[in-house]
Amino acid sequence: MITSQTLTWHAAAPVASFPADGGACVKIGHRQIAVFNFAATGAWYACQNQCPHRMQMILSRGLTGDHKGEPKVACPYHKKTFSLCTGENLNGDDYQIEVYPVKIENGMVYIGLC
């Protein structure tokens, strides 16, 4: 279980660097992280950028939406969909993605990493 005590917050980029209702990739250390701005709801999400289906760094360019009210991203190449809350594969496949907490402070996006 991830707690706020085990997280280190990393500055990703200014809020203005991310498209409204879309995603962009940032690199923090050795990780590529897809960050999504759900501007319509004011929510932010982050996950690994690598699609585990074909191991391509593409999720930041994925199609966003929701599945039964839960935010999701679909790989733009293979249409595999993942929950942005849990990382669960919504197609029923065994693989999933890592998701990370996001916070906004003073116009900057921060990603929580263990």
UniProtKB/TrEMBL annotation:
Residue ranges occupied by any Rieske domain in the UniProt entry: 9-111
Keyword Flavoprotein part of the UniProt annotation: no
A molecular function (GO) term: metal ion binding
Gene Ontology biological-process entries: nitrate assimilation
Record has NAD as a keyword: no
UniProtKB keywords: 2Fe-2S, Heme, Iron, Iron-sulfur, Metal-binding, Nitrate assimilation, Oxidoreductase
Name the record gives this protein: Nitrite reductase small subunit
